[in-house]
Fold this sequence. Notes:
The protein is α/β, with parallel strands linked by helices. It contains 3 helices and 7 strands, in the order βαβαββαβββ.
Amino acid sequence: MIYSFTTYSPEQTIALGEQIGKRLCGGEVIAYSGGLGAGKTTITRGISVGMGLGDEVTSPTFALVNEYAGRDRSLCHFDMYRISGAEDLETTGFYDYLDGNNVLAVEWSENIADELPQDCIRINIERVDDSTRIITLDGDERFADIGN
């Protein structure tokens, strides 16, 4: 099912992410697409808040992965900008994070499209202007009531 949202500020993007995060159980992979500055880290900050992990999320650009550990589950935030396939992906430890307790949020997921689970949650963020974003979420029915 595909859901579409428009946000008009970073705060609204974070609030949307929070609603998404509240619906995650662990074991999900979120595959982001969207250009530089689209808001992938911003929405991840909200997902972290929704998961009860706080808002201290930073871009994993140079680290490749930032892990935010919780008592029951963790959020693993990946940047795949410089990754170009399965061999490169192996060096990030990506496969080690695929267990039932982790939620993986993957920026530049198109670079590893063949390695993503078929049932991943896909989020595309389109930057309209400095503050407006059109966010499309392709996921299951647990996201149907967001925004109601």
